[in-house]
Design a protein that fits this description.
By secondary structure, this protein is an alpha+beta fold. About 20% of the residues lie in helices and about 35% in strands.
């Protein structure tokens, strides 16, 4: 695996993406779909996942242990800009399984990093007017919804474990960049090992409107 991090910028073209990362040519994967659509990106072997740096207006994130990079490319438009990028990664990319306690610490550390970088909860006008604490209460009550979770509320470990095994966190940076974080908490039925699969969708305002 190359020593250099793989670098992505939101709204670069697929040609620019591959041209900026020649060291990762062997891992390129383009998945052609009907109606002139191709999913561009990379697929990495287990235990050899690289660090990915994704840049967006006024900031960037560095993500370790990325398993896949996926971006929608419209073949009907010349030089189509990749306005939505998905990164899939595991917290435990170097070991088989992770404890809930370690996953909690890693996720809270990631949330703190996002706050320090200026990311806020992406509350829409159609959503209930909940405080950060009330968003947790609403998510864990019968008939509530994880879609309204405010990531700025400082969950303790017991509260973290009360959340469902599939969580969605919605964030924005300024008014033009958005992020959905999907956390899938799983247990291996054969070994009992815990795994936390994290999926980040980073996209611009046009994608939000679409």
């Amino acid at each position: 695996m190359p020593d250099k991090s793989l670098e992505i910028s939101l709204n670069m073209t697929a040609k620019d993406l591959y041209g900026a990362n020649p060291e990762y040519k062997a891992f390129q994967e383009a998945d052609a779909q009907p109606m002139g659509v191709t999913f561009q990106g990379y697929d990495f072997p287990r235990y050899k996942e690289p660090t990915v740096i994704i840049k967006y207006p006024n900031g960037e994130l560095s993500i370790d242990g990325v398993m896949s990079v996926l971006a929608y490319d419209d073949n009907k438009q010349a030089n189509y800009k990749l306005s939505k990028v998905n990164l899939g990664f595991l917290f435990n990319h170097k070991v088989s399984g992770i404890s809930d306690e370690d996953a909690y610490q890693k996720m809270m550390s990631f949330f703190k990093e996002l706050q320090d970088k200026g990311w806020t909860y992406a509350k829409s006008l159609s959503e209930p007017r909940l405080s950060p604490k009330d968003s947790f209460t609403f998510a864990t009550k019968e008939g509530g919804s994880d879609f309204n979770l405010d990531y700025t509320y400082p969950l303790n470990f017991e509260q973290w474990m009360q959340l469902s095994d599939l969580q969605i966190w919605q964030l924005r940076h300024g008014t033009d960049v958005f992020m959905n974080i999907r956390i899938n908490r799983q247990s291996d039925p054969e070994t009992g090992n815990r795994h936390y699969l994290i999926s980040l969708d980073i996209f611009d305002e046009l994608e939000l409107i679409r």
